[in-house]
Automatic annotation (TrEMBL):
Belongs to the GART family. CDD domains: FMT_core_GART. It holds the Pfam family Formyl_trans_N. This is Phosphoribosylglycinamide formyltransferase. The record marks D144 as: Raises pKa of active site His. It catalyses: N(1)-(5-phospho-beta-D-ribosyl)glycinamide + (6R)-10-formyltetrahydrofolate = N(2)-formyl-N(1)-(5-phospho-beta-D-ribosyl)glycinamide + (6S)-5,6,7,8-tetrahydrofolate + H(+). It is an enzyme of class 2 (transferase). One of its GO terms (cellular component) is cytosol. Its EC number is 2.1.2.2.
Amino acid sequence: MKNIAILASGSGTNAQKIMEYFRQSPKGKIVLLASNKKEAYALERAKMFDVPTVVFSKADLKNGGLAETLRHHQVDLLVLAGFLLQIPPALIQQFPDKIVNIHPALLPNYGGRGMYGMNVHQAVKQAGDRETGITIHLVNENYDEGKIVFQAAVPIAEADSPEQIAEKVHELEHKYYPNVIESLI
């Protein structure tokens, strides 16, 4: 069984779906949820699943403090679920091809610095796209440029608001992210 850590910065709906899924999986176990924001509701969600939590600073991310915590928990796979900071090269080297992220668009479109959450959905709406989706990819040194391991698309109507687009994308995230994570173990 592989040990999985989740990094989250926000409310943690994806983190919750992942924790629910891996409660029943023989292949992996969630051993830690770490957040860079002490007010992130993802921390409360983790407590509901008896998953240990830790809050870390941006300095911890850069100076190896988080890496040491991950080593202590014997983490095999690092899952980003609404985590908004860039992963430093040293952590990527510690977990080569073992850091996975989900992006709320069909990369390479609408990726890069500042392209997350509603920023993405507003850009999709403004562009007049008739399809959007999710991309699950491995993390490298550049935002949203790692090897793509999975994509799923959903049609969008001209009348759909950015909020409605977000709902459709969240459904895809919750449906596919846990399964794809398991396939990477």
